Amino acid sequence: MGADYYVFQYLKITHAYGVAYIELSCIRGYYCDCLLTNYDSDTDNPQQHEEREQYIKSIYLTPSIEPILIYDEVGYLKQKFKEKYDNPIYYKIHEKRKYWKDTGDLIEDFDDIISIYKIEIREPMT
């Protein structure tokens, strides 16, 4: 079954050699039935209908969370962040593999990490 858009959540790791990403989740998203408004060419303005549809889509494609700072030079900001994200980050460091979104070189050590943010990206299907 297809989707109208996808919601991706990542850990964005800025380190001494570039930027790395860890995908946390991918969820399929669907526009509501409000996009299926009854457009009548005799009574409605087609441009107004198109603008309304684009506005509703922009609401759905706006991330539901602002980037959340998980880790900075001092360390994890909360103990629950350490408990939740420590294992995936160590796995990423020891995996020694780059993914398509990663830029720069591989993370060599945990001490090379400058900051970690949890981010959300919403991408429409084309």
Mean pLDDT: 87
Largest sheet: 6 strands, antiparallel
For the biggest β-sheet, the strand order reads 4-3-6-1-2-5
Please mark out the parts with pLDDT under 50 across 5 or more consecutive residues, or reply none: none
What fraction of the residues are assigned to beta strands by DSSP? 25-35%
Return Rg in Å.
20 Å
Strand tally is 6
Quickly count the domains: 1
Q: What is the helical fraction, as a range of percent?
A: 25-40%
- The helix tally amounts to 2
What would you note in describing this structure?
There is one protein chain. The protein has helices at residues 46-60, 79-95; strands spanning 5-15, 18-29, 68-72, 75-76, 103-104, 113-124. It has 126 residues and is α+β, with helices and mostly antiparallel strands. It has one domain (5-124). It has a six-stranded antiparallel sheet with strand order 4-3-6-1-2-5, covered by helices on one side. The two termini are 15 Å apart.
Summarize this structure briefly.
The protein contains 2 helices and 6 strands. The protein has 126 residues and is of the alpha+beta class.
